[in-house]
Amino acid sequence: MDTRIELRVDGEQRSLTVDTRTTLLDALRERLGVTTPKKGCDHGQCGSCTVLLDGRRATTCLALAVAHAGSEITTAAGLADGEELHPVARAFLEHDGLQCGYCTPGQICSAVGMLDEAEAGWPSSVTEHGEGGAALDESELDDEEIRERMSGNLCRCGAYANIVTAIREAANGSGR
Amino acid sequence: MTTAEESMLRANAIGTPLTRLDGTEKVTGTAPYAVEHPVDSPAHLHPLQAAIALGRATGIDTSAAEAEPGVLAVLTHANAPRLASTGNGELEILQSGEVGYRGQFLGGVIAETPEIARRAADLIRVHYERYEHDVELRADRDDLYKPEQVNPAFDTDTAQGDADGALASAAVTLDATYSTPMEHNNPMEPHATIACWTDGELTLHDSTQGVYWTQAAVAPLFELDQQQVRVISPHVGGGFGSKGIPHPNVVLAAMAARLVPGRPVKFPLTRQQMFSVVGYRTPTIQHVRLGADEQGRLSAITLDVVEQTAKVKEFAEQTAIPTRTMYAAPHRRTSHRLAALDTPVPTWMRAPGECPGMFGPEVAMDEMALACGLDPIEFRVRNEPETDPESGLPFSSRNLVACLREGARRFGWHDRDPRPGTRRHGEWLVGTGVAASTYPVFAMPGSQATIRATPDGRYAVRIGAVDIGTGTWTALTQIAADALEVSVGEVDLEIGSTTLPTASGAGGSSGINSWGSPIVAAARTLRARLDEHGGTVPAEGVEATEGMPDNPHTSQYAMHSFGAQFAEVWVNADTGEVSVPRLLGIFAAGRIINARTGRSQLLGGMTMGLSMALHEESVLDPRFGHVVNHDLAEYHIATNADVGSLEVDWLDEHDPYVNPMGSKGIGELGITGTAAAITNAAYHATGIRVRELPLHPDKFLR
Hints:
Strand order of the largest sheet of chain A: 2-1-5-3-4
Structural class of chain B: alpha+beta
Largest sheet of chain B: 7 strands, mixed
Mean pLDDT of chain A: 94
Mean pLDDT of chain B: 97
Distance between the termini of chain B: 66 Å
Number of domains of chain A: 2
Strand order of the largest sheet of chain B: 3-5-1-12-9-10-11
Low-confidence stretches of chain A: none
Radius of gyration of chain A: 17 Å
Order of helices and strands of chain A: EEHEEEHHHEEHH
Oligomer: heterodimer
CATH superfamily of the largest domain in chain A: [2Fe-2S]-binding domain
Number of strands of chain A: 7
CATH topology of the largest domain in chain A: DNA polymerase, domain 1
Radius of gyration of chain B: 26 Å
Number of strands of chain B: 26
Strand content of chain B: 15-25%
CATH class of the largest domain in chain A: Mainly Alpha
Low-confidence stretches of chain B: none
Number of domains of chain B: 3
Helix content of chain A: 25-40%
CATH superfamily of the largest domain in chain B: Aldehyde oxidase/xanthine dehydrogenase, molybdopterin binding domain
Largest sheet of chain A: 5 strands, mixed
Strand content of chain A: 15-25%
């Protein structure tokens, strides 16, 4: 069954027809030609399709497009401010937090979403429990926290060590 | 005649940490991978795969699929294009209803959308006649056979002296069997193709490690001239060997596109499909025997390897190769034996041969060092060969000992207590281990480079190379700049298409050697021609094309890179969980072309080695012949949280014999020895010697 939906993608209003079986990822890639989010597993196991969906990181292969009609999507391409790369993207480039580049847009969207979560004090499974439960003081976003929070994004080339460096630098920089 | 020293490039751009030239496109996700190339009105293919391991499809009912709205065609052996017989049983699909392994392609549905194609493929009913299949590798099989050679063209067996006699009289001996499991490459970009036929010619946007390798394999199947198949692949989302030579998915896409001429057919594999159709690393069983005198000098080394191949096509992994080069011993023997099974075809996976072949023997060296009462570094140093043990040739450069020494210093090895199972940190048992790394210097023949200088001061460098994430775009630009004696900003590199001069693929860590050498040769010819024009570029431009130059030194020297890897391992005393908080790799691999991307290659290799050590195992169900854990939730690869402190460095190694750049391949070196270093450290932590990968917790719960 086909349905007409609207999406706002990287700041642009888009109108499209989707099969009710169409995932958000396939809607972006096959219907709209937005190929920045990648398909690595189609089962929410690798994170390559991560975008910011209404401001939070989400795997678009596990989302049906019709269920997200009207939503706001930011891909790694949309993070850039014109020609100016997003500070996280710039840090990935500088620290070579990528090799083949296929997981990279998902890693970067995930990192941007993760830094917002950390800023809001959301705990991860490695966050120390303090009085009144676990909450992250932003100054505690150390390498262990970054590794844990980025483990939903697989990289087969093995760029993890550089990805952590890139995110740490971006988090400490003035870019956010 | 110029000497090797004189023909070496003067490094200017080479060695600098230039950021990836394709980096901005990659961090914004705008670099187009195979099925992301915009094409007009694409159709979508979903395959039909065999649900039995051996037998024959006696009837395929496609009526329900054909009745689905939006279905353009259904492909089976009944209507598939006839392929020319090229002797490649893996690629010659759909020529009959025969099934040689579970998951083999039996057909596919071509439809207007991917959803329709997938749904319609589910509606196809296949009736089978089943034959009894055989998918179990065991060392005690009575039908193991000796292949004519092992990948790509090494002797299957070698022998020197009297290994059995030397072992019988040795003061210290070791006799142990090690094993590595079936593993799958799993590049993040699934294998993917857009195929389109126009006027009898085929265009493939394919995710491949070699555009000309794909062309060479596909053209004869469809009885086309090579130039009638155009292959385009500017960006590849990883390969690690499985995208080296084409697999049946490329053929199925081309067949499907034949049924809808003029329409491009998109065929990205799913992650699950990749576990049966694009190859894997064979499981290996490695029987190692070592003999040494009282001083810890090896008198005998033997390695007898048993592994598997597929009945539909042979692939013989060269697992014993590194043992022929690593350590001195007058009496030595290596062999490879295969079991031919009703399984998918094994293939290259990052450092085929060297990667599994540096597991068993490097754990054996650790065991033998202990048996001889020596530190494992000292034991290796004591058995360092003067010349290549089997060929007798001198090494063009060999700095294994220097890597071990430098790594030991950096890692803090000197005060290591050798006793196993004596350090505890809370519930964790702590240990450290070391192993060596090695990889040969391969050069592939046949590449050509064309360079064109134009009056606007630009240099167009064209070669059909590929970048699978290794940094080819950047490194070849640096090489061209230095060979032309210009800045990198003046060079415009083009790679990734068969419209460019012919080139070998990205395999055997040979890319920079095989593509860089003809670029240097073409640049030198171009500069000579420019000199004829008084140093100015005429209006029509100046062009030079050169092929891969002969290297006279390859017959005079043994050429290999080396390294030493150090691991700190924590094993949980209660759960058996293994954690690797610290890894250090020190390598000697000639001149590193790009310090930034080169470091990433070595880090990436070690990370995949860590993944192999801790997680990776494809579980083949002998009852049905399929890999049970066929997705990334169940086939675990290392995640970010698995990697702790990971440090990589290299020694300045001068080697004028390997090529004009003085470089050795580094794409595979990093994965060799990592799993052994971690396994040796796990023994040091626990006192439990594991000889079977991976190091899952059950191995430590005794």
